[in-house]
Write a sequence for this structure.
């Protein structure tokens, strides 16, 4: 067997981008291995030449992680086999290139469900593990990290790590991977939804360092995940409100009111403009709270009560399959339409991925709203996973001057979030475009500690250059 290699730039072009619209992608060679053996031969060729390697999954990332600046790309697209599904044990073993949508379809006949998938279902399971992805069901069921039981990872040294959860953990500040040991960094990952840099907690499981490592420690080839029983019938309700300042209160009441609450999302009036052409029934000037609950009379009645109490302007309800699917589409289209818009106008959007602890959320929300009021000259929107105190604040700078100002606004939001115990990256990772914020979060010392960890896994320092921290840190 020989690995598929493409050197023709035209054939490589589509691998030089992801959903971030990050510019400056370049590579001289693309490897598409079909087996671990082929993957290892590609890795050893690159290591021998000292060629940088960027790992490519489904390409849906939003931080430029799979976009190479130079060197080679290794795509996992042919690692697309579901190796095992065990109904009784509620687990599955997947190759890293399995597309999430295909996996969800494959487990459905078994009456099983995999909850932490991201909104974009063309992502690969390997990409999800590499970014610790979350999605609309993470509010109730948690992020990818919670479901990963085992990871198989090829290192640039040609060695393979196959780590099961529970098999090795931090002791006395050291995690011993057998092949090498690493020191627990001095920073701690906050106990909220977080995908900012390498995970670090006292007593942490060694597998948790690999999850969210954004293609910098090794190449994930196989992932074993735990599954849950298929969810009971659910309904989606989108309640429209005219008074955005009441939203944190509405969300707090909803969290208390529903026995079976699966998903809780928010779209401000500005973000709903991106959905107007697909959903003309959206009331003008309103924001929306998107709720997925059990589809029974008790939940529907409570929703009606909340709608009345907070003077809802209108509602869309998806109880039957057709309308349910329509409202799933409502949720999915928003980031898609935003990304398509930015791609069309050729701008890298200034998009935040900040989360804060639950009790601090109303303060963070007010901070966003005050900022938006003050910055009327720039188009801004706010939407996302409000149930997890995690909103995406997006800024639309119209020119270079506004772009500079947008970054200043970003910095003030980061400062506010960190002062509240939050994170600069809740689900998308750091990639190549958020180094600055990670440095503010963990300091130069934290970044250097991450670089030291990387060196233990990847002594040639060729893997995922510029992901998480600048590659220059590797030479220090
Ligand atoms: C419309 C839209 C909606 C989105 N919604 C969400 C959301 O709700 N929640 C969320 O978390 N994310 C969301 N995302 C972001 C994205 O879907 C996730 O980050 C996803 O996990 C990326 O997976 P991928 O396979 O596309 O990875 P890629 O984009 O190909 O790569 C992402 C990173 O992982 C690394 N990587 C990929 N595969 C491997 C591997 N096998 N081994 C080692 N490293 C690897 C890459 O080098 C890169 O650094 C959304 C994106 C879009 C476009």
């Amino acid at each position: 067997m020989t690995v598929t290699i493409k050197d023709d730039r035209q054939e490589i072009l589509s691998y030089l981008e992801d959903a971030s619209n990050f510019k400056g992608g370049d590579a001289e060679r693309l490897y598409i291995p079909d087996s671990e053996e082929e993957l290892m031969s590609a890795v050893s060729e690159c290591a021998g030449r000292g060629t940088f390697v960027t790992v490519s999954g489904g390409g849906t990332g939003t931080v430029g992680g799979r976009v190479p600046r130079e060197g080679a790309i290794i795509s996992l697209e042919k690692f697309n086999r579901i190796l095992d599904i065990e109904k009784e044990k509620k687990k599955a073993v997947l190759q890293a290139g399995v597309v999430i949508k295909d996996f969800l379809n494959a487990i459905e006949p078994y009456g099983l469900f995999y909850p932490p998938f991201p909104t974009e279902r063309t992502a690969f399971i390997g990409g999800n593990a590499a970014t610790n992805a979350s999605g609309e069901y993470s509010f109730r069921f948690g992020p990818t990290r919670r479901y990963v039981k085992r990871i198989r990872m090829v290192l640039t040294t040609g060695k393979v790590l196959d780590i099961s959860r529970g098999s090795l953990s931090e002791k006395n500040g050291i995690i011993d991977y057998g092949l090498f040991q690493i020191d627990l960094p001095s920073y701690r990952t906050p106990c909220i939804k977080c995908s900012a840099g390498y995970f670090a907690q006292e007593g942490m499981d060694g597998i948790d360092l690999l999850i969210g490592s954004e293609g910098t420690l090794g190449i994930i080839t196989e992932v074993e995940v735990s599954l849950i029983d298929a969810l009971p019938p659910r309904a989606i309700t989108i309640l429209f409100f005219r008074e955005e300042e009441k939203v944190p209160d509405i969300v707090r009441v909803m969290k208390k009111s529903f026995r079976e609450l699966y998903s809780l999302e928010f779209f401000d009036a500005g973000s709903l403009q991106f959905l107007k052409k697909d959903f003309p029934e959206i009331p003008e000037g309103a924001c929306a709270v998107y709720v997925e609950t059990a589809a029974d009379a008790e939940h529907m009645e409570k929703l009606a009560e909340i709608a009345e109490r907070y003077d809802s302007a209108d509602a869309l309800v998806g109880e039957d399959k057709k309308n349910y699917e329509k409202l799933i589409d409502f949720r999915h289209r928003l980031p898609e339409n935003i990304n398509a818009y930015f791609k069309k106008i050729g701008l890298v959007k200034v998009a935040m991925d900040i989360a804060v602890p639950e009790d601090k959320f109303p303060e963070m929300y007010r901070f966003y709203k005050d900022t938006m009021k003050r910055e009327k000259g720039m188009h801004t929107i706010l939407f996302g996973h409000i149930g997890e105190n995690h909103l995406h604040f997006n800024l639309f700078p119209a020119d270079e001057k506004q772009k500079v100002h947008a970054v200043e606004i970003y910095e003030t939001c980061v400062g506010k979030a960190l002062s509240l115990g939050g994170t600069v990256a809740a689900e998308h990772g750091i990639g190549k475009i958020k180094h600055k914020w990670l440095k503010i979060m963990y300091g130069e010392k934290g970044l250097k500690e991450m670089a030291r960890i990387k060196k233990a896994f990847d002594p040639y320092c060729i893997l995922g250059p510029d992901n998480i921290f600048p590659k220059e840190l590797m030479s220090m």
In short: The first strand starts at residue 4 and ends at 6. The pocket of flavin-adenine dinucleotide is lined by residues 18-19, 54-62, 65-66, 76, 96, 118-120, 123-124, 126-128, 130-131, 133-135, 214-215, 219-220, 335-336, 339, 427-428, 464, 467 (CB under 6 Å). The chain is about 30% helix and 20% strand. The mean pLDDT is 95.
